[in-house]
Amino acid sequence: MEDNSVIDIASINQKIEKESAFVDLLVMEINKVIVGQKHMVERLLIGLLGQGHILLEGVPGLAKTLAINTLSKAVQGSFSRIQFTPDLLPADVVGTLIFNMKENDFTIKKGPIFANFVLADEINRAPAKVQSALLEAMQEKQVTIGDETFILDKPFLVMATMNPVEQEGTYPLPEAQVDRFMLKTVIDYPKLDEEQLIVRANLKGSFEQVNPVVSVEQIISAQKAVREVYMDEKIEKYILDIIFATRYPEKYGLEELKPLISFGASPRGSINLATAAKCYAFIKRRGYVIPEDVRAVILDVLRHRIGITYEAEAENVTSEDIINKIVNEIEVP
Predict the structure, then answer these.
(1) CA angle, 306 as apex, 303 and 309 as ends, to 5°?
(2) Could you tell me if 131 and 247 lie in one domain?
(3) 61 has pLDDT over 80
(4) Count of CB atoms situated within 10 Å of the CB of 66
(5) Same domain, residue pair 47 and 165
(6) What's the CATH code of the domain at 269?
(7) Which of 135, 170, 195 corresponds to the end of one domain?
(8) Same domain flag for 289 and 150
(9) pLDDT digits (tens, 9 = 90+) for 229-266
(10) For the chain, what is the radius of gyration of the CA atoms?
(11) Could you list the residue range(s) of the whole structural domain that residue 130 is in?
């Protein structure tokens, strides 16, 4: 029986190695334009391969728009950008019915949501109605205009950005809506030598041409292959222990976290953590998940799924501190 499973993993490994050959090509192509920001590029790929969506938080000017635009060019996908503002309407996102005088009938005008890569810029600037229209499309992968329902193109990746600096005129995303994002990635400033390269490239004004290196079909095939990445039962148990420790910390010898957590991660957290770990293994061209894969993606998957109490805020404890404590406590398989 054991020999069989060894052969099985070996064949999965071979298959994944073949399927993931395009990853290096894609990253090289993106790096022509994006300097540094390895973490963000990796997270974009995880979102794309895991059929999830990404919430990016970072100050303006950190190449968030440029990154997703570059990715869409390298993947031969369609790209659209929605600038969220307080006067935006749901119809501006999903589309609307327009009266056609010639035919004396209504025709459907599709909105910018109908693209493979959608950038929702400053999502917290738009009112709840607009946010929920976008989030419904993200969750259901379909849009209803009038009485017609349209299935969105595959792959479909929404990258929403949030500016953490300004709070005026913003509508914070409710926890239930933030939970729809597979990953929440916080982007930091580039390193000094990286920024020097960015400044040079901008002053020259000559950016390298991004060429399409991967087809949409290859991405769809890779999304299916990710599901075949082997995950041992011990790793599953490890993921569930981490998630349950966010809900019942006292059962894992972490009583001190109980008053700091207002609510733990939902089952969506466990699903996304397992999926993201598989995607990370795929990007590293491996056909099986190891505990390091889980640890590599855990902050991005869980930082927006754990509610912290006023007590935690008073003590300057963030959800990331809580996750790190849990990860250090839970036994690694």
Answers:
(1) 120
(2) no
(3) no
(4) 14
(5) yes
(6) 1.10.8.80
(7) 195
(8) no
(9) 888 889 999 999 999 999 888 888 888 888 888 888 88
(10) 21
(11) 33-195
Residue 73 has pLDDT above 90, yes or no: no
Separation CA 175–CA 72 (nearest Å): 29
Report the distance separating Cα 77 and Cα 68, nearest Å.
11
Beta-bridge partners for 149: 144
What is the SS3 assignment for 295? helix
Contact of 110 with 150, CB cutoff 8 Å: yes
The CA-to-CA distance between both ends of the chain, in Å, stands at: 22
Q: Are residues 179 and 246 in the same domain?
A: no
Q: Is the pTM of this model over 0.90?
A: no
Q: Residue 122 burial by CB count (10 A; 0-12/13-18/19+): exposed, middle or buried?
A: middle
Q: Cα(304)–Cα(310) distance, rounded to whole angstroms?
A: 16
Q: pLDDT per residue over 136-174, tens digit each?
A: 788 888 888 878 888 888 888 888 888 776 565 566 777
| Extended strands (E) in 196-323 | 261-263, 307-308
- Tell which residue, 82, 96, 176, has the closest CA to residue 128: 176
Domain assignment present for 109: yes
pLDDT greater than 60 at residue 5: no
Q: List the helix and strand counts (H, then E) for the chain.
A: 14, 11
CA 148 to chain centre: 29
Asked whether 36 and 194 are in contact (CB, 8 A), the reply is yes
CA–CA separation, 4 and 70 (whole Å): 43
Paired tokens of 224: 């299916």
Same domain, 45 and 186: yes
The pLDDT value given to residue 69: 80
SS3 content of the chain, % helix, strand, coil (to 5): 50, 15, 35
Q: Has residue 88 been placed in a domain?
A: yes
Question: How many Cα atoms within 13 Å fall on the side-chain side of residue 37?
Answer: 31
